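Ops channel
N.P.: pipeline sanity check, posting one input/output pair.
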């Protein structure tokens, strides 16, 4: 395995898949220039018939994706920022998410939407939303959130080969983080969580960008004799609930870290499912570490103040472990 950054792993996956399948087309905003680096070299390698810049019009881009996929292409649609999904939502929510069902499977829509999601780069309120709860609620799309370069490659390749619409959300500010990435054919099935660190005292479910601070918090707490099990769902739709609940039953305690806003976050959904299906195993109330229900600030100091951090995760773990049932 070679050590690569997440953006490099994504670029490698795109090249491998486009070489493997000539039906794949990729288009979106500034994909030729590749401002993020994930589509670097693709236009030169595969030509303008398969890699195309589009106007800055997300309604057009998302509509093109549905039409091209319905006509037999396997589409990679680059939306750039997660917030831009809002302006392309009609074709996504009313067409991509529903057409396979409404045509009784006669139309397949193999579309992979790429977007940077979340804060951490001082990109301000219109470029920093963690959009996965909105997408997860549509009921007809899959949502992938890699937490490492290896996962980025394996999950992206699986997403591209899927016959349903898949949103592949790269965590903002995470493209430069290095990690070991397998060479060649490497796929991770959608809907399979990973135990990033085993532990006995508490289950810490960390979504997407939250995996890294969760692991750092677990490492720090280990020095105090607290062994936290870190679970990375990797995909929020489909969700590997079996692995998450098995962890909760082992430890008896659950903290969920989600960069989404607190109201209707995926953390809220996971907390409800754990309370519903593993209530008998819980030794303490479930805690959620999320973002306040407000816009993401531009100022770095304010942005850091509201995003989940190693410190806020550690505090939630300690409070959960300290809880005792009232007598």
């Amino acid at each position: 395995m070679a050590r690569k950054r997440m953006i490099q792993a994504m670029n490698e996956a795109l090249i491998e898949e486009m070489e493997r399948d000539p039906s794949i087309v990729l288009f979106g905003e500034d994909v030729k220039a590749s401002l993020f680096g994930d589509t670097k070299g693709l236009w030169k390698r595969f030509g303008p018939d398969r890699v195309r810049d589009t106007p800055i019009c997300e309604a057009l881009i998302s509509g093109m994706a549905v039409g091209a996929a319905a006509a037999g292409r396997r589409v990679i649609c680059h939306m750039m920022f997660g917030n831009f999904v809002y302006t392309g939502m009609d074709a996504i929510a009313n067409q991509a998410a529903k057409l396979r069902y409404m045509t009784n499977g006669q139309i397949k829509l193999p579309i992979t939407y790429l977007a940077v999601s979340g804060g951490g780069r001082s990109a301000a309120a219109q470029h920093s939303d963690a959009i996965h709860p909105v997408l997860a609620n549509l009921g007809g799309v899959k949502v992938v959130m890699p937490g490492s370069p290896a996962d980025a490659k394996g999950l992206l390749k699986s997403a591209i080969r899927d016959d349903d619409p898949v949103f592949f959300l790269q965590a903002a500010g995470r493209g430069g983080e290095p990690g070991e990435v397998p060479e060649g054919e490497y796929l991770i099935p959608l809907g399979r969580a990973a135990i990033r660190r085993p532990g006995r005292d508490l289950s810490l479910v960390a979504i997407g960008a939250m995996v890294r601070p969760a692991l750092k918090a677990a490492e720090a707490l280990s020095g105090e004799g607290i062994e936290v099990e870190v679970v990375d769902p990797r995909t929020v739709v489909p969700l590997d609930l079996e692995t998450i609940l098995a962890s909760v039953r082992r430890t008896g305690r659950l903290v969920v870290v989600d960069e989404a806003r607190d109201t209707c976050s995926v953390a809220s959904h996971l907390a409800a499912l754990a309370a519903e299906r593993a209530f008998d195993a819980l030794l303490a109330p479930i805690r959620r570490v999320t973002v306040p229900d407000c816009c993401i600030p531009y100022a770095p100091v304010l942005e850091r103040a509201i995003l989940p951090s190693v410190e806020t995760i550690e505090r939630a773990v300690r409070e959960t472990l300290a809880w005792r049932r009232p007598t």
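N.P.: looks fine end to end. The longest strand covers residues 74-81.
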